[in-house]
Amino acid sequence: MDIKKVLIIDDEIDICLLVSSILRKEGYETTVANTLAEGEQKFVEFNPQVVFLDLNLPDGVGFSIIPKLKKLNAEIRINIVSAYDGITERSEAKKHGIQHFISKPLNRDAVIQAIKPI
């Protein structure tokens, strides 16, 4: 699958701008959402191949949206981006089939690695 569209769901504007800037320089089209509700709406409208998802959002926990996104697109690749990166969070991410868990503060290399084909 040729990845072209990426959705970033994070309530921190700086993180959205950073990830978006990194990915745009690499040739990806990006859009951002700052809540789970907005993320679900943008997912339907934008139809991305990859999502970067924060865990701690104003309207809930990021894990709660994963089943909805996978129901809409079984092939979606979801990467977690979070300051909460303990054993519990990483274990939960594995249960949801998450390939990449990026700890905040993040860096360019981690974002690039997460976007590359598996």
UniProtKB/TrEMBL annotation:
Keywords: Phosphoprotein, Two-component regulatory system. The keyword Phosphoprotein applies. The modification 4-aspartylphosphate is found at D54. It comes from the Bacteria. Residues 5-118 form the Response regulatory domain. Gene3D superfamilies: 3.40.50.2300. Pfam families: Response_reg. GO terms for biological process: phosphorelay signal transduction system. The keyword Phosphoprotein applies. Transmembrane segments: none annotated. This is Response regulator. It comes from Acidiluteibacter ferrifornacis. The lineage of its organism: Bacteria, Pseudomonadati, Bacteroidota, Flavobacteriia, Flavobacteriales.
